[in-house]
Design a protein that fits this description.
Oligomer: single chain
Strand content: 15-25%
Shape: globular
Radius of gyration: 24 Å
Distance between the termini: 75 Å
Number of helices: 10
Helix content: 25-40%
Structural class: alpha+beta
Length: about 450
């Protein structure tokens, strides 16, 4: 029998994934009510994703068999690969928390299971089944602990329903992953555990999570000339390199599309792969994307970054955004290098200070005052501040929608007046704490 291509193996394995998922869901008793309980508790998991993902990878990095895939040739941790995997994990758990388990979700879990076995596309990556089983259990414990922490006192009934739902879902996921294993690839002996600085991994998980949500303090654009229109006829593409960024520019069915030339799976040169219809296939491991919007067909919550394309006369330009975020050093192979800056804080300023010209009218940033997170609002040029957490169940007000003097919580749409802190619409019942903002010489400062 001729050896099948990666894409053929993927299609063969994923065709019945949805049916198998539903079959196992029926077997373990995972019902629509359980999915609804997971969906109802999504706000808890969203808030804990960075911590959960950090705990997951801290555990993987401690053990020799699960640490190996993240090492460079010199034995140090490949930070870029680790962050890429965190980014993928973030999308997966956000998708799992949505309560929507369609065929695409099942195919994705099926593919992940085979990717860790000898059936996967990369023969260098093999994780023994015992570790897959162990980490599914580990993640279930992390999720259960998050539900208990947030819901036990305010909604124990939801905690119970959600814990049941997640427990049953994890059983189904484990069955999906485990069916890819037939026999162990090679025997293993116990190795020496490695000390891992969990705080460093946590910082990287927060960064990966924020990038997945597009969190940024401000954005600048650089315009890059791709070439002349007649140099890229319809049906053709051109790769460009801007510093460390590789971009594929496609002239496709009359439209122009620019995508990041780095597959979400292992960073493969996705823009060099075959294009059939709107489907672009990464040449490394067969991951497929819609070229018109960058969406990963296996997980429609994940997508390749895309860049605006402009045609000016007979020339093609790409606008590349540069996200200005608060960066901090992350050293996974050494001691903690230092605490990160508070989100929204600028270098050289205290955690409760900010440059006012970086917070235009209608925007919100998050700072800290005496160790507590604070949301700062610009309302028509005047600055106000409240505690950053919604009084309902702790939603992040700094990520909410500012409508005049009113901030709307992104989790359950509670509304507060940012000047007085008063509740203007439920489900919140308690007002949010307010702070005074003083502006001197272009610097804003939060005070009591």
């Amino acid at each position: 029998m001729n050896e099948q291509s990666t894409q053929e193996r993927f299609k063969r394995g994923s065709a019945e994934a949805g049916r198998f998922f539903r079959y196992m869901a029926d077997f373990v008793g995972f019902t629509a009510e359980d999915a609804a309980a997971i969906r109802d508790s999504r706000f808890v998991i969203e808030a804990h994703i960075p911590t959960i993902v950090a705990a997951f990878y801290t555990q993987l990095l401690r053990f020799p068999a699960t640490r190996q895939p993240f090492l460079k040739k010199d034995g140090t941790i490949d930070r870029d690969n680790l962050e890429l995997r965190m980014h993928h994990q973030t999308h997966f758990w956000r998708r799992a928390a949505s309560g929507d388990y369609d065929d695409d979700f099942a195919r994705y879990v099926d593919y992940v299971g085979r990717a860790h076995t000898s059936q996967g596309a990369d023969p260098k990556i093999y994780i023994p089944e015992r570790y897959v089983i162990g980490m599914v259990g580990f993640m279930q414990q992390q999720i259960t602990a998050a539900l208990a922490k947030e819901l036990r006192e305010i909604d124990p009934e939801l905690e119970s329903r959600a814990a049941r739902g997640w427990g049953l879902l994890m059983m189904v996921i484990l069955e999906m992953l485990a069916r890819s294993y037939s026999q162990e690839k090679e025997p293993e002996i116990a190795g020496e555990l490695r000390p891992i600085d969990g705080a460093e991994v946590h910082k990287l998980a927060i960064e990966a999570y924020e990038k997945s949500l597009g969190v940024a303090r401000s954005i600048e654009y650089r315009e890059v000339l791709v070439g002349r229109v007649d140099e890229i006829p319809d049906g053709q593409r051109k790769l460009i390199q801007v510093d460390d960024l590789s971009i594929g520019v496609f002239h496709h069915q009359g439209g122009w599309y620019a995508l990041h030339n780095s597959c979400l799976h292992r960073g493969g040169p996705v823009c060099t792969g075959p294009l059939e219809g709107n489907t672009l296939t990464c040449p490394w491991h067969g991951y497929q994307y819609n070229v018109t919007d960058g969406v990963l067909l296996l997980d429609r919550n994940a997508r390749l970054p895309m860049y605006p394309v402009e045609i000016r006369g007979d020339e093609v330009y790409v606008r590349i955004p540069f996200f200005l975020r608060d960066e901090f050093e992350i050293n996974l192979d050494g001691p903690l290098a230092g605490a990160p800056l508070a989100p929204g804080a600028a270098p050289g300023l205290a955690e409760n200070e900010f440059p006012v010209d970086e917070v235009p009218p209608g925007t919100v940033i998050r700072l800290f005052f005496q160790g507590e997170p604070v949301a700062v609002y610009n309302v028509d040029g005047a600055f106000y501040a409240t505690h950053e957490r919604c009084t309902h169940v702790g939603g992040p007000l700094s990520e909410g929608r500012l409508n005049g003097e009113e901030i709307i919580c992104p989790w359950h749409d509670s509304c507060f007046n940012v000047i007085t802190g008063a509740v203007t619409c439920g489900p919140a019942k308690k007002p949010v704490r307010t702070y005074r903002v003083v502006v001197e010489n272009g610097i804003g400062r939060i005070e009591e």
